[in-house]
Amino acid sequence: MSGAGDQQPSAAPAAAPAGTLMVRGLSVKRGGRLVVGELSMTACAGTVTALIGPNGAGKSSVLKAIIGVLPVAAGTVTLAHEEVLTMERRRRARVLAYVPQRSQLSAGMSVLNVVATGRFAHQGLLARLSALDRQAIDRALVLVDARELGERRFDELSGGESQRVLLARALATGARAILLDEPTAGLDIGHALAALRLLRRLADQGCTVVVVLHHLDEVRRIADQVLLMHQGAVLAQGTAAEVLASGALTQAFGVQGDPAAPWSFRLLAEER
User: Fold this and answer.
1) What is the pLDDT of residues 179-204, one digit of tens each?
2) Which of 195, 199, 197, 218 is closest to 207 using CA atoms?
3) Is pLDDT at 81 greater than 90 in this prediction?
4) pTM of the predicted model, to two decimals?
5) Is 272 inside any structural domain?
6) In sequence order, what are the beta bridge partners of 97?
7) How far apart are CA 150 and CA 137, in angstroms?
8) Is there a domain that residue 76 lies in?
9) Are residues 48 and 224 in contact, defined by beta-carbon separation less than 8 angstroms?
10) Domain count across the chain
11) Which of 24, 99, 212, 244 is 20–30 Å from 146 (CA)?
């Protein structure tokens, strides 16, 4: 396990495996305030990288900066040696998919049409959906167990249903790198476990998966690599077992493990 100070810039980017997402010295400001400072990470194809940390640690800002939603104050992001931050929009949408924490969609679009927007980067201007597009859309809906929602209005779905549809939209892109911001939020336990299993399967099939998670049992279940963030910086980095057993967890969250109940925690200030 390593702390933030142990991160080193890559000396030979050309040696990175194909599909590797490399972030170097990423700094992000929101409203003039630095929310992420000089963050570096490497997420390899075939792995799940989990970002964890308390609210306001900068986890969501990292994902939004990578996909171009937030401006980057400094740093570089490359995917398979290709610069992401200056990548043409349609090209970026073909290689990098994003599942937000919550959708800003308010129009009465059908679920099918929402998932179909994941195919825009593969279509010409005003082009109709091709047979290949329709296959990708149908497959994505099946993967997230949302095929029966196809004709429903997206703005009438429950929070958990809409989250599954947003995941389907990302999968419909066919991108080999997927960024997800709390994808299990609002899901019932069955669909949450199914979503985690799907992410693990995607990684096993060669995708690069970077996911923000809050539940530490979910992190332990699927993550190959964990970055613990605190106040915009990486406090600890390593395997799930290393990070979740470290003292850095206490520093970040102000909690400590309960020896009487594995994977349970209590506040440091809590009276015995």
Assistant:
1) 999 999 889 999 999 999 999 999 99
2) 199
3) no
4) 0.88
5) no
6) 178
7) 10
8) yes
9) yes
10) 1
11) 212
